Amino acid sequence: MSETQTDTVARSDAEWREILTPDQYRVLREHGTERAGSSCLNAEKRPGTFHCAGCDAPLFENGTKFESGTGWP
After folding, report:
1. Residue 49 maps to a domain
2. What sign results for the dihedral spanned by CA atoms 7, 4, 17, 45?
3. For residue 46, how many C-alpha atoms fall within 13 Å in the half-sphere facing its CB?
4. Are the CB atoms for 53 and 20 separated by under 8 Å?
5. C-alpha to C-alpha distances, 30 to 5, 13, 26, 33, nearest whole angstrom
6. What pLDDT digit, counting tens, does each position of 3-44 carry?
7. Does residue 7 lie in a domain region?
8. Binning pLDDT at 50, 70 and 90, where does residue 2 land?
9. Could you give the number of structural domains in the chain?
10. Can you list the positions of beta strands (E) in 1-73?
């Protein structure tokens, strides 16, 4: 996205665990990754914007995804 969001979201560890799924928590708070090709969003074709699960910042437009051959859009 063209705009840069620099605000941080201050939440306790318990608050993050309450609002995020276990997989989201691992990726967003523990620097984990999804297994390549495992996301149901890989096949998502509808127009729209992907947002961060933690802070709701817009990340990218669906139309800008490309097949990288790595399992990640």
Report:
1. yes
2. positive
3. 5
4. yes
5. 21, 11, 5, 9
6. 665 678 899 999 999 999 999 999 999 999 888 878 888 888
7. no
8. very low
9. 1
10. 49-51, 58-61
